[in-house]
């Protein structure tokens, strides 16, 4: 037998092989029959007859063969993957410097994305832990003229919406108050969610222990019960497994714990415990049942099967319009009250969305910079490996085979880099969750779940393919050239490509830096705006008086006066005041009321003057350090019948009084029943934090009001901790059961008010540093390579008498050209991209020239430093050895 | 198996035996089986080929194309090392089985 070399693969090959084999058999058999004496014309027919059904047998054979070919293809595939991975591991291990740099770059780039994606995933993508999350609608009652996002609803209004809206099948009410909780240790001030009985049923929450509220438990007369939040149960009660059935005293009544909730988003607020509305002394007051204007609760509803959120909005708006017609008295001053129905999931995350998506976009840019850098590192490595690649190609490795090998290397690197990145992200998730808590009630949902893992894997594989494919294609063009001339100079195209990549890196890093620079400038503007008060050396505390003990104005005033007297007599304290609010104590209007100016009646009730009202004791302005522009501050004499006085802010005076002359004018907050005389005009204060506009304000004497939730303010040069303890001890000496919370300085309050822009700035700053570092490393790498290539040229130049300084200038000039091109492109791109963050800036414009110039300077300086190392090497070239090397 | 009342696996072991002396094409394998068994097994000739392909898929046989004694391109089969091992165990098993059955059939009625 003579052997034939034959490759048979593929369907056509299979068909041909089987037919040929069986044809051979028939032919041989025919021949044998003829030799045995059968007539030649009969022999073939007989041969076929003894063979059997030729077609069926051929089909059976082909089937077997096809299976065999397929199985072998798979095995070959697997073998070659294993081979590629082994080979990749070997070659990567041979260049540990390259491998470590690439892994670090990719780990940082991918890790940043995994971390930010975990926030986006937890807050925007994951389903909240409510079974009915996708069917819940949050209904608000905004009044634009008053600047209030939600007036809330009154009990009769809730009843109307419950009975008249057909697109919902359940409705629940909610409000939150703080109460004292006694029993099981120290007295505690607990934030209490006050809800209708089926609140948890509507949301779809199953208690972890015990039960939720039963129908009827929210009716007046029902036995008082409590449901605990998971956090409170764990943190304050040590996760006591037998807590159900125990009792606590709240508002002088015994409350039995009936259940513990599972971990839930802190929505709408972070509540410690929940009680039915019948237990709330305010909500269960008899007049609440009928008073339409007593709006104090929020509404959530469940959309009926088949109905839409839009239908709820439409129907409820119609009901609202009808109510305005039937009960005009209930809408006095808020005749523009409207209905705003928002799906629960957007209500929970909408304030987080812009910042999170911005961060994700910036993290994406950082990853692109990282990928560009890895690409150009890979190109550089291929230049060094050119011989190896060319030889492999010459030995018969096809272009596809080589490409696969190179892609295997890069994907291997990026997947390992991604895994490292995931570890980085894991380390950062705790901090990010704290960060996110400033924006959303869902911060606890930020975890590294399977979606984050999948995202990371996807990003890693994609990054690996991208950084592998570009150099691979650049290679295939000059492999042949390399083999032909065998020189080290092949790959000029690659050098240009690498420079282009570094230009791109610089441009993108510039965009990231401008973003970070703008938010930083914004933050410093916010911190430097004149707040209108002196935030230094002033400590505040929150003393929410127990309503059962201090149930009328005189007892509250007596407590406050006694507290102020004791604090004033303490060593180191200069001035003391109480008020219902202080600058930056809240971020939005809390007590904004319309008023009338005597002699200037405004017919359109929506256009009546409005002011944020704050009740303050005489020394309030001294404590916060705000001067009177005109008139006087309050005195101890402003009480009882002499207390019909008011102080307005400068902006209120300008806006509502002719020629800004408010002193001596009279205003009324109760439609003319009582008139108050303006005795002073105070400087404007940024009451709602540095980021908010100045609001018109009015101040009433504390002595004429009945403030229950006291804010205590102390000005002193002593340490804030000392003053905080002093306030705590003094309150305790007056009433041992009275909790004191929220001790902080006025400055802390101001900083807390801008915590979210500050945190965004910090994150963007981190990304900017990362992008700058990667781009600079890229530039340094390109310059080092270029200097290496030009050693000979530098040698000649120096032999011809060139100064070291001129060589230095030459190299620096080349590096800076790359940077400048990158900066110009990046500057143009930033102008477009910066519009995205325009909305998050308060103090600066997105085109702020100082930011652009500053970033450019930083870039040029850092880039010059990065070029200096290779440039110095260039000047150290020894002309003689440079010649010898050639 | 079509046109045959062979015990399952018998054809396979005969094929392995037929190729155990070196590369053999399908026709020669069939002829060898016919001649050495004196046509006693009544294998329909065509049934041989699916069996050959099945053994090849299992990795017991491998193919090799060559030129036959009549000068035609033909597919030759040869044993792989797995095939050789299989032949040894199958032959031993067959012998044991046949001896056992023979013994049983030769025994008298007591």
Describe the structure.
- The complex is a heterodimer of chains A (886) and B (110).
- Chain A is 53% helix and 14% strand.
- In chain A, strand 3 and strand 4 form a beta hairpin.
- Chain A is built from 24 helices and 23 strands.
- The longest helix of chain A has 41 residues, at 54-94.
- Chain A has 886 residues and is of the alpha+beta class.
- Chain A starts with a strand and ends with a helix.
- In chain A, the strands form 3 sheets. In chain A, strands 14, 15, 16, 17, 18, 19, 20 and 21 form an 8-stranded mixed sheet that branches. A 6-stranded mixed β-barrel of chain A has the order 3-4-9-6-8-7.
- Chain B has 110 residues and is α+β, with helices and mostly antiparallel strands.
- Chain B has 4 helices and 3 strands, in the order αβααββα.
- Chain B has helices spanning 10-18, 26-36, 48-57, 81-106, and strands at residues 24-25, 61-67, 73-79.
- Residues 1-5 of chain B have low confidence and may be disordered.
- The A-B interface holds A 1-4, 6, 8, 17-18, 20-22, 24-25, 27-29, 31-32, 50-54, 57, 60-61, 64-65, 67-68, 71 and B 2-3, 23, 25-27, 30-31, 44-47, 49-50, 52-54, 56-57, 64-68, 70, 72-76.
Name some characteristics of this structure.
heterodimer, A: 886 residues, alpha+beta, 8-stranded mixed sheet, 6-stranded mixed beta barrel, 24 helices, globular, B: 110 residues, 3-stranded antiparallel sheet, 4 helices, 3 strands, disordered N terminus
Shape of chain A: globular
What class, by secondary structure content of chain B? alpha+beta
Q: What share of residues of chain A is helical?
A: 40-55%
Q: How far apart are the first and last residues' alpha carbons of chain A, in Å?
A: 59 Å
Q: Which percent range fits the helix content of chain B?
A: 40-55%
Secondary-structure topology with pairs:
The complex is a heterodimer of chains A (886) and B (110).
Chain A lengths: L1 E2 L7 H25 L4 H12 L2 H41 L1 H30 L10 E5 L14 H10 L3 E15 L5 E8 L3 H5 L5 E2 L14 E4 L1 H8 L9 E4 L2 E8 L12 E4 L21 E6 L5 H18 L13 E4 H6 L3 H32 L1 H9 L4 H38 L13 H36 L6 H37 L9 E7 L8 H17 L3 E7 L12 E3 L1 E2 L12 E7 L3 H5 L3 E4 L13 E5 H7 L9 E3 L7 E7 L14 E5 L7 E8 L3 H15 L6 E5 H8 L1 H35 L1 H9 L4 H30 L15 H27 L3 H7 L1
Parallel strand pairs in A: 4-9, 6-8, 16-21, 18-20
Antiparallel strand pairs in A: 2-10, 2-11, 3-4, 3-7, 3-10, 5-8, 6-9, 7-8, 12-22, 12-23, 13-22, 14-16, 15-19, 17-20, 18-21, 19-20
Chain B lengths: L9 H9 L5 E2 H11 L11 H10 L3 E7 L5 E7 L1 H26 L4
Antiparallel strand pairs in B: 1-3, 2-3
């Amino acid at each position: 037998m003579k052997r034939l070399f034959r490759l048979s693969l593929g369907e056509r090959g299979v068909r041909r092989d089987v037919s040929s084999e069986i044809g051979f058999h028939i032919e041989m058999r025919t021949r044998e029959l003829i030799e045995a004496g059968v007539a030649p014309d009969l022999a073939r027919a007989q041969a076929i007859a003894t063979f059997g059904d030729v077609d069926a047998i051929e089909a059976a054979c082909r089937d077997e063969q096809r299976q065999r070919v397929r199985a072998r293809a798979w095995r070959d595939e697997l073998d070659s993957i294993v081979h590629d991975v082994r080979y990749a591991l070997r070659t990567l291990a041979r260049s540990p410097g390259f491998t470590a740099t690439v892994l670090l770059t990719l780990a940082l780039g991918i890790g940043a994305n995994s971390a930010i994606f975990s926030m986006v995933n937890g807050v925007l993508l994951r389903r909240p832990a409510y079974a009915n999350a996708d069917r819940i609608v949050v209904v608000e009652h905004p009044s634009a003229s008053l600047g209030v996002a939600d007036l809330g609803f009154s009990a009769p209004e809730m009843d109307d919406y419950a009975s008249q809206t057909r697109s919902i099948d359940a409705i629940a009410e909610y409000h939150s108050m703080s109460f004292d909780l006694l029993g099981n240790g120290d007295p505690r001030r607990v934030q209490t969610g006050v809800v209708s009985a089926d609140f948890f049923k509507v949301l779809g929450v199953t208690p972890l222990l015990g039960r939720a509220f039963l129908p009827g438990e929210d009716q007046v007369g029902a036995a008082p019960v409590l449901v605990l939040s998971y956090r409170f149960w764990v943190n304050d009660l040590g996760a006591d497994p037998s807590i159900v059935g125990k009792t606590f005293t709240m508002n002088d009544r015994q409350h039995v714990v009936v259940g513990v909730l599972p971990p839930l988003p802190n929505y709408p607020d972070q509540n410690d415990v929940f009680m039915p509305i019948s237990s709330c002394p305010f909500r269960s007051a008899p007049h609440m049942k009928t008073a339409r204007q007593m709006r104090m609760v929020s509404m959530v509803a469940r959309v009926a099967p088949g109905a839409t959120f839009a239908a709820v909005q439409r129907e409820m708006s119609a009901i609202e319009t009808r109510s305005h017609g039937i009960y005009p008295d209930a809408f006095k001053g808020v005749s523009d009250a409207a209905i705003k129905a928002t799906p629960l999931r957007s209500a929970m995350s909408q304030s987080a969305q812009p910042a999170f998506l911005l961060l994700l976009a910036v993290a994406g840019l950082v990853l692109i910079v990282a990928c560009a850098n890895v690409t150009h590192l890979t190109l550089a490595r291929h230049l060094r490996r050119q011989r190896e690649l060319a030889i492999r190609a010459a030995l018969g490795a096809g272009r596809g085979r080589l490409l696969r090998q190179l892609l295997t290397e890069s994907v291997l690197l990026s997947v390992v880099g991604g895994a490292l990145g995931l570890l980085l992200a894991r380390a950062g998730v705790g901090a990010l969750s704290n960060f996110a808590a400033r924006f959303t009630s869902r911060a606890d949902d930020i975890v590294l779940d399977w979606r984050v893992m999948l995202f990371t894997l996807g990003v890693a594989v994609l990054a690996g393919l991208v950084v592998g494919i570009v150099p691979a294609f650049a290679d295939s063009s000059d492999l042949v050239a390399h083999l032909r001339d065998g020189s080290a100079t092949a790959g000029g195209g690659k050098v240009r490509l690498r420079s282009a990549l570094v230009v791109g890196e610089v441009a993108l890093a510039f965009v990231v830096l401008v973003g970070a620079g703008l938010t930083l400038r914004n933050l410093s503007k916010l911190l430097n705006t004149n707040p209108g008060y002196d935030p230094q050396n002033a400590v505040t505390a929150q003393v929410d008086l127990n309503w059962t003990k201090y149930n009328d104005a005189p007892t509250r005033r007596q407590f406050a006066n006694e507290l102020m007297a004791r604090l004033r007599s303490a060593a180191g304290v200069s001035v003391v005041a109480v008020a219902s609010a202080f600058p930056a104590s809240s971020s939005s209007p809390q007590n904004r009321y319309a008023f009338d100016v005597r002699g200037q009646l405004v017919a359109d009730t929506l256009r009546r003057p409005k002011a944020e009202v704050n009740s303050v004791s005489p020394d309030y302005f001294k404590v916060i350090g705000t001067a009177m522009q005109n008139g006087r501050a309050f005195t101890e004499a402003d009480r009882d019948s002499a207390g019909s006085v008011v102080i307005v802010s400068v902006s209120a005076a300008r806006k509502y009084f002719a020629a800004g002359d408010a002193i001596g004018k009279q205003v009324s907050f109760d439609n003319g029943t009582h008139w108050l005389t303006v005795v002073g005009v105070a400087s404007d204060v940024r009451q709602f934090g540095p980021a908010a506009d100045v609001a018109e304000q009015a101040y009433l004497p504390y002595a004429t009001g009945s403030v229950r939730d006291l804010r205590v303010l102390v000005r002193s040069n002593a340490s804030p901790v000392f003053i905080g303890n002093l306030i705590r001890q003094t309150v305790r000496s007056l009433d041992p059961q009275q909790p004191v919370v929220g001790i902080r300085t006025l400055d802390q309050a101001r900083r807390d008010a801008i915590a979210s822009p500050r945190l965004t700035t910090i994150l963007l700053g981190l990304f900017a540093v990362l992008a700058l570092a990667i781009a600079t490393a890229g530039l340094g790498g390109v310059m080092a390579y270029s200097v290496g290539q030009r050693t000979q040229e530098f040698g000649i130049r120096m032999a011809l008498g060139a100064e070291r300084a001129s060589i230095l200038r030459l190299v620096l000039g080349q590096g800076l050209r790359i940077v400048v091109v990158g900066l110009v492109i990046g500057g143009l791109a930033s102008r477009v991209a910066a519009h995205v963050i325009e909305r998050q800036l308060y103090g600066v414009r997105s085109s702020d020239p100082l930011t652009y110039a500053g970033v450019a300077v930083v870039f040029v300086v850092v880039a010059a430093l990065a070029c200096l190392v290779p440039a110095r090497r260039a000047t150290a070239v020894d002309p003689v050895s440079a010649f010898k090397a050639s | 198996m079509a046109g045959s009342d062979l015990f399952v696996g018998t054809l396979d072991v005969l094929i392995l035996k037929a190729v155990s002396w070196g590369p053999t094409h399908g026709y020669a394998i069939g002829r060898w089986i016919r001649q050495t068994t004196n046509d006693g097994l009544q294998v329909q000739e065509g049934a041989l080929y699916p069996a050959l392909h099945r053994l090849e898929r299992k990795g017991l046989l491998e193919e090799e194309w060559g030129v036959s004694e009549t000068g035609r391109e033909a597919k030759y089969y040869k044993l792989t090392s797995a095939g050789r091992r299989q032949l040894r165990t199958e032959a031993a098993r067959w012998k044991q089985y046949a001896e056992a059955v023979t013994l049983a059939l030769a025994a008298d009625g007591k």
